[in-house]
Amino acid sequence: ISTSRDTFQGSRTCALKTDTTVLCWGNNPYGSLGNGVDSNDPSFVDHFNSPQPVLDASTNLALQSAIAIDVGADHACVILANSTAKCWGENIVGQIGNTSGQRSLKATPVMSDDGYSALSGVVSISAGWDGSCLVVSSGVGKCFGENMNGMLGNGLTGSSGTLGVPINVVG
């Protein structure tokens, strides 16, 4: 179970079930519950008191094969059994690891350095305020999202390449 407490948007909790599906509940800003619902949807409910299944953007069915989860401020990420990662929620600064700059209401793949294919070999992941970081099987750390104060760990501040593309942590 992973919980986020965001003083502006409220809080949400996500749980990884033994059947490898994921449920989330609580506040749903920017589609951060991953249940396919957003504030423009007529069925929008800002606060879900009961657990909602996270949907996979590629199948529109419940996300399967999750082995780890972390919840950030307005987004969440999982590692799948095939060592790829998927995230959902707010993406205005690329914090869910894709180049669209648009929020995702369902779990979508974290992209590799080329910005087109799914990143593989993911062994750990952490979702933060406006960014996320992960470690791949080679031991390399990679971060994506906001870098205003150097949060990507690449020794720079400000824009550090393509929005949402994982940047190698230096050091």
Describe the protein's architecture and organization:
This protein is an all-beta fold and 171 residues long. It is 0% helix and 39% strand. The protein has no helices and twelve strands. The strands form three sheets. The protein has a four-stranded antiparallel sheet, with no helix packed on it. The mean pLDDT is 88.
Q: What would a concise description of this structure say?
A:
With 171 residues, the chain is an all-beta fold.
Record keyword descriptors for this entry.
171 residues; mainly beta; 39% strand
List the helices and strands and how they pair.
Blueprint: E1 2-6, E2 10-16, E3 22-27, E4 47-53, E5 66-71, E6 75-80, E7 85-89, E8 104-109, E9 122-127, E10 131-136, E11 141-145, E12 167-168
Antiparallel strand pairs: 1-2, 2-3, 3-4, 5-6, 6-7, 7-8, 9-10, 10-11, 11-12
Within the largest sheet, what's the order of strands? Answer: 1-2-3-4
Instruction: Give the SSE order as H and E letters.
Output: EEEEEEEEEEEE
For the record, give the distance between the C-alpha atoms at the N and C termini, rounded to a whole number: 31 Å
Shape: globular
Could you give a short account of the major beta sheet? 4 strands, antiparallel
Structural class of the secondary structure composition? mainly beta
The percent range for strand residues is 35-45%
Pick out the low-confidence regions: none
Q: Could you tell me the number of beta strands?
A: 12
